[in-house]
């Protein structure tokens, strides 16, 4: 059988070798490449839904706006992401009441329908508490508001589908399955513009359900909440018939209606109604299960932004205690008559959860993350380990380590390091803008100067982080200017040709060559300037909602060519792409060419990337989702926009795209960020591969690339900053490369990391972002996973001298092995304790090193180069001195180890032999006594490894000074050298004592053995004893 | 050349058609066939793996004993000291404390779980139904760039913080050769509860007709791990009666 397996393996390797890069799937290529998450979580992101286990207070789930589903199993102390591979925009999480430990349902598509909300793609089920998930249909539901599971029959489930936000759709209303989600039937439907925004089952009678229906629509330039179809319905026959329950509600049209039942008394209902007559909006209460309602409250806190805050939560045991989501959140203790604000926390409250056993323990989901309270939401504390923040943009500087800059939904603008001692912690981040944050850029050559903005460019700041001073530099309208239209997420960008240059776009492109002090308009209105799309003051529907979020006919993306400062591209939210070749004197509208290439008209240009290889080449990414178009659009031009070609096919990529990055060295290596994650092509777009290694399916809003490190940095809208470290291996993957069994990738020379490892002050409950792996990166491609036979990796000096062994990675695709520049630790004398210093393996000097992989019968080699840091405070001669002393101490440790090995071996031999041969007893006893005496002088032989530790002997002292000097980067101190001298003299003394035993009692013992014809023990040579390479 | 291509094509087709009616039993039949056959594994009384792990440039040798009746011990040799970990003699579970260097009994729950796991040798899938285990075929997944069959193995419940909890592991078999390449197990207790521990297996080599992985990496999902490199495996080792027993103070 083994032969057959081998034969199969050979056969398949033949098949595999015929593969071309255009056939590769992501998980066949990316191998050991792994994304790392640096959060942050000091400002978290929007929590859309909270659901607790019905009987186990330790288990809590939260759904988030763009960061998936998280589960806590310790009552809300730690949370773990459990939904990484699927749509990260969550409408609702539901727990099967009959099987609450295992069966969990997730309805995707957030229902708090702000402009930047992400889309959903159906309903999912787990039958093992969230470890594995299966999509169970309703793919076109877009947003699922509610899942109600029959308390006695887990196969019977009712789902409220709010439906498409950005267009008409028929997959909305109330759906029912009777087979656990295998098939669905739409049991209640109003029309294609009205969805079920809440579906609630009476906890005392599963035939009774309430459904609020909401007529609503967003466009890129408007929002409309309300209409004749909005209504609150009730069924008493398990969903067969539904009737409006409006007695006591105001006349006219309704908007969004929030709804809740008091769990302790099913007759008491609450609803918050958005009404045509604002004075009649607010809280309604029914005490007869909906037969009639009375208006109890119309406070601002109850009526504000119904589309964002339509949630009521009733206390589990007190029917008159209710909490309402809102700008600050409200609580009523008198059945909804009066309300008081919840404890201080991040604004924009979306959901509330009472602990089942202790309702004073309350969890609250906000735009700034999850909070908990131990006193009924009077005072709140924030959960600090949820890195679910929503970046709109990301940029990097060129410092060491480089910093990451970006703006967040409702959480300001920030920058923080890409790595930090102990990991990237909350304390590493600095705030550089308030409000909603969007584009943030460092000055290209003076990174203490940075630019940030808030929504609609209401304020654009220049910030000097040295002086800690801000200056507002927003361009203002001058005489003759029309009203300036800035997008909610207005484009700012810097220039690689002039570090003091800054661009910003309204409907015009503005340029400043003095860091924003002077602005010059360098274009006319580049948008369609469609007046029908500029009525934001009337936007909102029944409740006017003019926040700036719907500003339209604006420029959204600006890109100056790195090759020619006069070539500037501008893309608009209403579908135009314009380019100038003369620094803005004249602009060409390339939109017709895009339409000719297949782009639907007026599709939002989300990003333009000016190629670094050719000034006539650019890429443009378009997002049609605000027109209810889910397709992926990415086009390339090579002739300044005269013609465009699509470089992406919908069957290769899932989700509409927003973000794009061209590699700096290989024009065929491109990165595309979509609503559902990251795609990479290595052949210019012929084959796009999804990158899924520790990379959730989260919306990517911006991609940047750091030129020094070749890192790709993703600004995600739900999972913070995610980094792919050094993607340079991807540049080198060709058909030729992947035809090899093993192919070493070219790697740059590596600089030894000599920074201190101090750091890490975060507490156990705070998120800490992952640092990149340190060490030299040995990179290779394997055309097949290594499964059979041995595979080894060793490091040699260029002279062939063995340095150390490494553990090879064995995945099909790209593999990376990290070498920490260490050789191997010395052989240390056996003792009763750890000689901690001797665990240390010396670092190699800067040089070239040969890496050898033996895989079956084949040997592969490559050479890597290792350098010292350029900014080191130590000279080469100081380093050489340190290395020589370390080597000397290394050898001394091994000399002592060899001596102790001989002592122990002879001691054992003597003990064993004298038991059998009485004639040996006298000599053997003397020998044992002398050997034991010497050993006790050089090695700890009593005590333990902690506070019962005995006084150090030579072995432990020698190991300590070796580890101390070896672990330093610079030369030994004079005190250390004095200690080395002491060790040398102690070791010499010990060696003398050994020699004296060897030439005395041991010699006699050997003679006695010879006389009795007893074999001597075998003593290894020093070389064999200390040999490292096996 | 044409013939070779043809035979490859035929081979590929036959594998594909085989894959379509794949079941738990066909996967396990192929798996055991690939690693030496059920009969041979049933006859195995125990084995010892001589191995080493690399600790930042210091090689630490280990000997891992596992016996058919569930007895086990890992003996580690560091700087002249001998430590034991994961020791279980069928009744008592124990290990050496690294600070005091003295043997200490495991807590009751660990001991009970060791007893409950003692039927796993040499492979939890061998005679799994007799042990009361169930196996379910899940959707295929790609692991290390290769397509794998994924089996969910539910063993008898274990104890976690005093509660009986499901004992579920996921096992991934290369669809090409049916060898086990990867395992996932959810951590059920402590601060890491809910995290997934993973094991990656490779470097399969034959030992007296049985195929063993000679490289085994254990770690947390998406985390780093250092493999256990096995240098030698001895089958049916002879050990003293008290080899696995708690030595006392």
Structure description:
The complex is a heterodimer of chains A (1030) and B (249). Chain A is an alpha+beta fold. Chain A has 4 domains: 2-23 and 750-759 and 773-867, Sandwich (Immunoglobulin-like); 47-382, Methylamine Dehydrogenase, Chain H (7 Propeller); 395-739, Methylamine Dehydrogenase, Chain H (7 Propeller); 880-1025. In chain A, strand 17 and strand 18 (243-244) form a beta hairpin. In chain A, helix 8 (876-916) packs parallel to helix 11 (974-999). Chain A is globular. The model of chain A is unreliable at 1-17 (pLDDT under 50). With 249 residues, chain B is α+β, with helices and mostly antiparallel strands. Chain B has a single domain, classed as Clam (outer membrane lipoprotein receptor (LolB), chain A), CATH 2.50.20.10. In chain B, 18% of the residues lie in helices and 46% in strands. Chain B contains 4 helices and 14 strands. Chain B has helices at residues 2-20, 24-34, 38-43, 108-116; strands spanning 46-55, 58-67, 72-78, 81-88, 93-96, 103-105, 134-137, 141-143, 146-160, 163-174, 180-186, 196-207, 210-220, 227-235. In chain B, a hairpin with a 6-residue loop joins strand 5 and strand 6. Chains A and B meet through helix 1 and helix 2 of A and helix 1, strand 12, strand 13 and strand 14 of B.
List the helices and strands and how they pair.
The complex is a heterodimer of chains A (1030) and B (249).
Chain A (H helix, E strand, L loop, with lengths): L1 H16 L8 H4 L5 E5 L7 E6 L7 E5 L4 E4 L7 E2 L8 E6 L8 E5 L14 E4 L7 E2 L8 E6 L7 E5 L11 E5 L7 E4 L5 E9 L2 E15 L2 E4 L5 E5 L7 E2 L9 E9 L2 E11 L6 E5 L7 E4 L2 H4 L2 H4 L2 E3 L7 E3 L5 E3 L7 E2 L7 E6 L7 E5 L2 E5 L7 E2 L12 E2 L6 E5 L5 E5 L12 E4 L7 E2 L6 E5 L6 E5 L4 E4 L19 E3 L7 E4 L3 E4 L7 E2 L18 E2 L13 E6 L7 E5 L4 E4 L7 E2 L1 H6 L7 E7 L7 E6 L8 E6 L7 E2 L10 E6 L7 E5 L2 E5 L6 E4 L8 E7 L4 E6 L4 E4 L3 H4 L3 H4 L3 E3 L5 E2 L24 E7 L8 E7 L4 E5 L6 E7 L27 E9 L2 E10 L8 H41 L4 H18 L15 H14 L6 H26 L1 H11 L10 H4 L5
Helix pairs in contact in A: 8-9, 8-10, 8-11, 9-11, 9-12, 10-11, 11-12
Chain B lengths: L1 H19 L3 H11 L3 H6 L2 E10 L2 E10 L4 E7 L2 E8 L4 E4 L6 E3 L2 H9 L17 E4 L3 E3 L2 E15 L2 E12 L5 E7 L9 E12 L2 E11 L6 E9 L14
Antiparallel strand pairs in B: 1-2, 1-14, 2-3, 3-4, 4-5, 5-6, 7-9, 8-9, 9-10, 10-11, 11-12, 12-13, 13-14
């Amino acid at each position: 059988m083994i032969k057959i397996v081998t034969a199969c393996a050979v056969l398949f390797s033949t098949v595999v070798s015929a593969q071309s890069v255009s056939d590769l799937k992501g998980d066949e290529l990316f191998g050991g490449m792994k994304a790392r998450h640096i959060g942050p979580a000091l400002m978290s992101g929007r929590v859309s839904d909270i659901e607790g286990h019905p009987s186990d207070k330790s288990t809590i789930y939260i759904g988030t706006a763009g960061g998936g589903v998280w589960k806590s199993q310790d009552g809300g102390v730690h949370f773990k992401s459990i939904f990484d591979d699927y749509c990260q925009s969550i409408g609702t999480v539901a727990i099967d009441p009959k099987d609450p430990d295992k069966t969990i349902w997730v309805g995707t598509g957030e229902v708090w329908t702000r402009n930047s909300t992400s889309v959903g793609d159906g309903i999912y089920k787990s039958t093992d508490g969230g470890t594995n998930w299966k999509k169970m249909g309703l793919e076109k539901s877009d947003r699922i508001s509610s899942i109600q599971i029959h308390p006695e029959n887990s196969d019977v489930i009712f789902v409220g589908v709010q439906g498409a936000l950005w267009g008409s759709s028929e997959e909305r209303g109330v759906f029912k399955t009777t087979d656990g989600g295998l098939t669905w039937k739409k049991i209640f439907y109003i029309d294609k513009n009205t969805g079920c925004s809440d579906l609630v089952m009476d906890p005392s009678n599963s035939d009774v359900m309430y459904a609020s229906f909401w007529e609503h629509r967003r466009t890129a330039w408007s929002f409309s909440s309300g209409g004749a179809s909005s209504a609150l319905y009730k069924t008493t026959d398990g969903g067969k018939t539904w009737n409006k329950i409006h007695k006591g509600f105001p006349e006219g049209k309704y908007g969004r209606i929030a709804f809740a039942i008091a769990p302790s008394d099913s007759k008491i209902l609450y609803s918050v109604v958005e009404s045509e007559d604002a004075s009649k909006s607010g809280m309604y209460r029914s005490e007869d299960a909906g037969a009639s309602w009375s208006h109890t409250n119309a406070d601002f806190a109850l009526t504000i932004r119904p589309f964002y805050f339509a949630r009521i939560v009733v206390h589990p045991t007190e029917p008159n205690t209710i909490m309402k989501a809102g700008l600050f959140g409200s609580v009523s203790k008198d059945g909804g008559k009066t309300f008081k604000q919840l404890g201080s926390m991040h604004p924009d409250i979306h959901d509330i959860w009472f602990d089942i056993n202790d309702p004073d323990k309350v969890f609250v989901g906000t735009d700034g993350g999850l909070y908990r309270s131990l006193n009924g939401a009077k005072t709140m504390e924030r959960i600090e380990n949820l890195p679910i923040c929503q970046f709109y943009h990301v940029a990097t500087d060129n410092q060491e380590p480089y910093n990451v800059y970006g703006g967040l939904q409702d959480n300001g603008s920030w920058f923080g390091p890409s790595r930090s001692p102990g990991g990237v912690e909350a304390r590493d981040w600095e705030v550089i803008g308030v409000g909603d944050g969007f584009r943030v850029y460092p000055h290209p050559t003076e990174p203490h100067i940075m630019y940030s903005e808030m929504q609609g460019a209401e304020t654009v700041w220049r910030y000097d982080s040295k002086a800690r001073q801000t200056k507002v530099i927003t361009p203002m309208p001058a005489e003759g200017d029309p009203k300036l239209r800035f997008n909610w997420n207005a484009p700012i960008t810097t220039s690689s040709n002039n570090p003091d240059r800054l661009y910003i776009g309204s409907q015009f492109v503005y340029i400043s060559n003095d860091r924003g002090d002077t602005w010059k308009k360098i274009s006319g209105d580049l948008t369609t300037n469609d007046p029908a799309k500029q009525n934001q003051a009337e936007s909102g529907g029944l409740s006017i909602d003019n926040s700036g979020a719907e500003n339209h006919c604006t420029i959204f993306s600006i890109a100056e060519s790195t090759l020619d400062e006069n070539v500037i591209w501008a893309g608009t939210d209403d579908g135009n792409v314009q380019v100038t070749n003369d620094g803005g004197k004249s602009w060409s509208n390339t939109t017709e060419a895009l339409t000719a290439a297949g782009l639907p008209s007026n599709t939002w240009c989300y990003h333009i990337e000016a190629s670094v290889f050719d000034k006539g080449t650019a890429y443009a990414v378009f997002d049609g989702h605000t027109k209810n178009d889910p397709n992926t659009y990415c086009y390339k031009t090579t002739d300044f926009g005269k013609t465009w070609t699509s470089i992406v096919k919908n069957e290769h990529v899932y989700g509409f795209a927003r973000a794009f990055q061209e590699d700096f060295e290989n024009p065929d290596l491109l990165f595309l960020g979509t609503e559902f994650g990251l795609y990479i092509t290595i052949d210019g777009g012929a084959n796009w591969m999804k990158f899924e290694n520790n990379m959730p399916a989260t919306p990517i809003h911006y991609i940047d690339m750091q030129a020094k490190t070749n890192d790709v940095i993703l600004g995600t809208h739900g999972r913070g900053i995610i980094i792919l470290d050094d993607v340079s291996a991807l540049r080198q993957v060709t058909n030729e490369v992947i035809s090899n069994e093993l192919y070493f990738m070219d790697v740059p020379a590596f600089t030894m990391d000599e920074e201190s490892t101090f750091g890490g002050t975060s507490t156990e409950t705070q998120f800490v972002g992952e640092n990149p792996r340190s060490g030299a990166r040995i990179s290779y491609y394997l055309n097949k996973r290594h499964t059979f036979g041995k595979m080894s990796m060793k490091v040699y000096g260029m002279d062939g001298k063995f340095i150390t062994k490494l553990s090879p990675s064995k995945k099909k695709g790209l593999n990376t092995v990290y070498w920490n520049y260490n050789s191997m630790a010395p052989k240390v004398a056996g003792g009763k304790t750890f000689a901690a210093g001797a665990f240390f393996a010396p670092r190699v000097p800067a040089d070239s090193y040969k890496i050898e992989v033996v895989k079956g019968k084949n040997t592969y080699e490559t050479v890597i180069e290792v350098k010292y840091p350029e900014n080191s405070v130590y000279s080469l001669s100081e380093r050489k001195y340190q290395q020589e002393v370390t080597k000397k101490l290394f050898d001394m440790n091994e000399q002592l180890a060899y001596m102790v090995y001989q002592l122990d071996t002879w001691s054992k031999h003597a003990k064993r032999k004298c038991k059998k041969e009485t004639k040996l007893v006298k000599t053997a006893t003397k020998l044992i006594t002398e050997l034991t005496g010497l050993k006790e002088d050089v090695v700890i032989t009593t005590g333990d490894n902690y506070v019962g530790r005995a006084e150090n002997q030579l072995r432990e002292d020698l190991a300590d000074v070796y580890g101390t000097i070896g672990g330093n980067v610079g030369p030994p101190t004079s005190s250390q050298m004095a200690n080395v001298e002491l060790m040398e003299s102690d070791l010499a003394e010990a060696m003398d004592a050994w020699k004296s035993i060897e030439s005395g009692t041991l010699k006699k013992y050997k003679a006695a053995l010879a006389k009795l014809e007893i074999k001597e023990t075998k003593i290894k040579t020093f070389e064999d004893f200390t040999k490292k390479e096996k | 050349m044409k013939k070779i291509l043809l035979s490859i094509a035929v081979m590929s087709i036959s594998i594909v058609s085989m894959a379509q009616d794949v079941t738990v039993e066909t996967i396990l039949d192929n798996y055991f066939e690939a690693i030496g056959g059920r009969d041979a594994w049933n006859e195995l009384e125990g084995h010892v793996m001589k191995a080493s792990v690399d600790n930042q440039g210091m090689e630490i040798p280990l000997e891992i004993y596992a016996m058919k009746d569930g007895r086990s011990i890992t003996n580690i040799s560091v700087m002249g000291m001998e430590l034991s970990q994961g020791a279980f003699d069928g009744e008592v579970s124990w290990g050496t404390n690294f600070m005091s260097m003295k043997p200490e009994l495991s807590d009751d729950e660990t001991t009970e779980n060791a007893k409950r796991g003692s039927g796993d040798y040499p492979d939890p899938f061998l005679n799994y139904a007799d042990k009361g285990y169930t196996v379910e075929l899940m959707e295929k997944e790609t692991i290390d760039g290769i397509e794998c069959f994924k089996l969910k193995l539910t063993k008898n419940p274990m104890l976690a913080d005093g509660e009986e909890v499901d004992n579920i592991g996921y096992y991934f078999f290369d669809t090409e050769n049916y060898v086990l390449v990867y395992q996932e197990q959810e951590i059920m207790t402590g601060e890491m509860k809910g995290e997934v521990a993973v094991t990656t297996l490779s470097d399969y080599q034959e030992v007296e007709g049985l195929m063993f992985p000679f490289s085994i990496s254990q770690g947390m999902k998406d985390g780093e791990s250092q493999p256990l490199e096995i240098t030698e495996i001895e089958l049916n080792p002879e050990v003293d009666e008290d080899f696995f027993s708690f030595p006392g103070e």
